[in-house]
Amino acid sequence: MSRKLRVGIVGAGPAGVYAADILTKSDLPDGFDGVVVDILDRDPTPFGLIRYGVAPDHPRIKEIIKALKRVMSNEDIRFFGNVNFGVDVKLTELQQFYDAVVFATGARRDRSLNIPGLDLDGSYGAADFVYWYDGHPDVSREWDFQPHAESIAVLGVGNVGLDIARILAKTADELLVTEIPDNVYEGLKKNAAKDVHVFARRGPAQVKFTPMELRELSHSPTIDVIVHPEGFEFDEGSMEAIRAAKSQKLVVDVLQNYLAKEPSGAPHRIHIHFCQNPVEILGEDGKVVGLRTEVTELDGTGNVRGTGEFKDWPVQAVYRAIGYYSDPLPGLPFDEAAGVLPNDGGHVVDIDGAAIPGVYATGWIKRGPVGLIGHTKSDAAETIRMLLEDAPTLAAAEQAEPEAVDRYLDGRSIEFTTWEGWEKLDAHEVALGESDAHPRERKKVVERDEMVAISRA
After folding, report:
1. If 274 and its partner were Cys, which of 5, 166, 231, 256 is the partner (CB 3.0–4.6 Å)?
2. Which residues in the chain land under pLDDT 70?
3. How far is the first Cα of the chain from the last one, in angstroms, to the nearest whole number?
4. What pLDDT shows up at residue 371?
5. Cα distances (angstroms) measured from residue 272 to each of 9, 242, 302, 333
6. In sequence order, what are the beta bridge partners of 432?
7. Angle between helices 14-25 and 64-72 (to 10 degrees)
8. Which residues, listed in sequence order, are joined to residue 282 by a DSSP beta bridge?
9. Cα-based distances in Å from 52 to 78, 128, 219, 444
């Protein structure tokens, strides 16, 4: 007899949605006449870091939500938001409802940086700031902009670092055309930053941001982008990196254009510094007063070595954007060093390296927070291929009827949201944007309770 393959996916960001899409479009093994996918997420809304990790002035990147919406509209895919894995439901409970469970929980917090001064007032992690300006329901509504903080340091040269530098350098009024909620606009009006210094440990050929992100720094009329010549150098390893990737060559070309351009006298400046390795955040009376870096030099391979020369930069705040890190998941093994679920490319494996039956991983929780959104598709395809190969041997769910999940969540008094609920909230946010004193495409609702109430109305 044929049956439906039932799969639960934990995480409704691109990794989870792509996995669901690939699964519902795949040829199934003999014995299955269809697939049903439930996607669960701790947020009341879908789309993960597309909603809460992309800067609000990046509408082109947010266009990916349109593609994700088409996937989620598939009648074989259901969404359960406001369901926190490890709090509201455990793995053993999910295994009652699903033949297989795929974890796509991403990476939500900052990777640690082991230098003195991290605990000073004015030292911030990128994730906290990003969640604040993107209106995540679980962070404070206020941001501690200090009136004296006119010079800011951003550590890290990935796209998140550039997002932070750009948001700090722009005026609040420039961002009124975006979806930012009122509390973010009021907070940004208190931002006194005039000079934002972005520090790279290596050279221009080793930066991780994309050409588009780099070009967008100069799109604001209130910002001059200043690339400093110190450390702007190339060794043989750098030249190989440029020859190997067209995107890297484009990045270097944009940097060289900035290097040759004279500042226009704009009121805000983004400075990019190369071959400067942060070694200490300097403090006085518990507050950030500077950043100390060691000057580095390229060693011929594209890596750097310290020179023993140090430089102090007078800054009043430091934002660390050196990468994200995943949270351990209750009841599952975790590789603390890599910050991932240990896996063999798809199967989650135990401490002996043996695959845990019916448990899989995809996205950043599988491979770490590297690569662009597009890389997530191929990653999900690998995991789903393994799942389908295993499908004939997987234990069938004990409670296979879809309504069993709803009954379980209702029985736990969990106010879960659905895809239909998201469509209500989506329409509500669009209406808020249209009716605002400064009309825009949408204005985000921030409070969790309010999002849940609108979704469940």
Report:
1. 231
2. 1
3. 40
4. 73
5. 40, 19, 18, 40
6. none
7. 50
8. 290
9. 21, 11, 23, 11
Query: How far is 165 from 220, CA to CA, in rounded Å?
Result: 12
**SS3 at position 152:** strand
Q: In whole angstroms, give the CA distance from residue 31 to residue 80.
A: 27
User: Could you identify the residue written with the tokens 């609702």?
Assistant: 445
**Which H/E stretch holds residue 282?**
strand 276-284
Question: Rounded to whole angstroms, what are the CA distances from 382 to 39, 228, 347, 363?
Answer: 19, 42, 10, 11
| Maximum pairwise Cα distance, the chain | 74
| CA 167 centroid distance within chain | 16
Rounded Cα distance between 82 and 451, Å, is 10
Distance CA 315, CA 192 (A): 12
Sheet strands (E) in 178-273: 195-199, 223-227, 268-273
Q: How many CA atoms lie within 13 A of 325 on its CB side?
A: 19
pLDDT at 128: 95
The residues with which 296 forms a beta bridge, in sequence order, are: 306
Token pair 């020179």 in the structure block, residue: 307
Residues 288-299 have pLDDT tens digits of 999 999 999 999
d(CA 322, CA 232): 20
In sequence order, which residues have a C-beta less than 8 Å from that of residue 374 and are 6 or more positions away? none
What was the pLDDT predicted at 319?
A: 98
- Taken as a whole, the chain contains a residue count of 457
Name the amino acid, one letter, at 86.
G
d(CA 307, CA 296): 5
Question: Are 322 and 155 a contacting pair, CB within 8 Å?
Answer: yes
Backbone angles phi, psi at 291, to 5 degrees: -130, 135
Q: Map tokens 């404070």 to a residue.
A: 140
Q: 1: closest CA among 400, 426, 433, 425?
A: 400
Question: For the stretch 281-298, what's the b/e string if a residue is b when 16 or more beta carbons lie within 10 angstroms of its beta carbon?
Answer: bbbeeebbbbbbbbbbbb
CA dist 265 and 257 (Å) reads 17
Q: Which amino acid is at 153?
A: A
- Residue 381, CA distances (Å) to 10, 20, 98, 243 in order: 16, 10, 20, 29
pLDDT in tens, 190-223: 999 999 999 999 999 999 989 999 999 999 999 9
Extract the tokens encoding 409. Answer: 């969540």
Which residues is 47 bridged to in the sheet?
Answer: none
